[in-house]
Amino acid sequence: MGQMIELVSKDHFKNAAYVAHPSGKAKGAVVVLQEIFGVNAHIQAVADGYAKEGYLAIAPAMFTRHQAHVDLGYQADDMKAGVALKAAIEALPQPGALADIQAAVDWAAHESAGKVGVVGYCWGGLLTWRAACLVDGVAAASAYYGGGMTFEPALSQKSKAPTIAHFAEKDQHISMESVEAFKARHPEVTVYLYNADHGFNCDHRGAFEASAAATALQRTLAFFAQHLA
After folding, report:
1. What is the pTM of this model?
2. Distance between CA atoms of 71 and 86, rounded to whole angstroms?
3. Domain count, the chain
4. Can you give the CATH number for the domain in which 162 is found?
5. What is the pLDDT tens value at each position of the chain, 229 positions in all?
6. Among 90, 92, 156, CA closest to 127
């Protein structure tokens, strides 16, 4: 079981974050970036899972600059609310919420005394790609079905850290054509495709695909073991 802490960004903005500690000495840290549903039970469970693997895990609340304490489910009304919250954060002047990711990376590096990886899902996948390109101190990034990362302006950004990306072949939100464009533009990024739908990692959603989620996690853990050691 983790706990909520307070992070302070460089602009002095105070943000909440869920933190899960490993049972022993941390072998590095992982910043977990949320879907559009907030730092809810699923995202907390993801952070707990990385802690069980030996990492200090932190999930910053990425909606706080617009609304604090967001904890949504996965029904139609939750989706509508999440889309609106995402739009509000995306409309912030630069660097916007990237400052809060930077604060999480800095905190994780200090507290773990190790390297920091970033993993994110859906909107968090896009934020993971941005973090790999723009946030200092990211040693590795694993982006899951990042809506927007296969289109401009994200498509033209360049990762500063080793990055892998996971996409779903049945995804109605991210076309395979755009994924192929991303692969062509970024041969340095290892792209994995899964016979699944958008949101396949989340066991709270109807799109959950256990086999794809397990394979993607195994690949991410191996990737982090390589780059966060």
Report:
1. 0.97
2. 13
3. 1
4. 3.40.50.1820
5. 699 999 999 999 999 999 999 999 999 999 999 999 999 999 999 999 999 999 999 999 999 999 999 999 999 999 999 999 999 999 999 899 999 999 999 999 999 999 999 999 999 999 999 999 999 999 999 999 998 999 999 999 999 999 999 999 999 999 999 999 999 999 999 999 999 999 999 999 888 999 999 999 999 999 999 999 8
6. 90
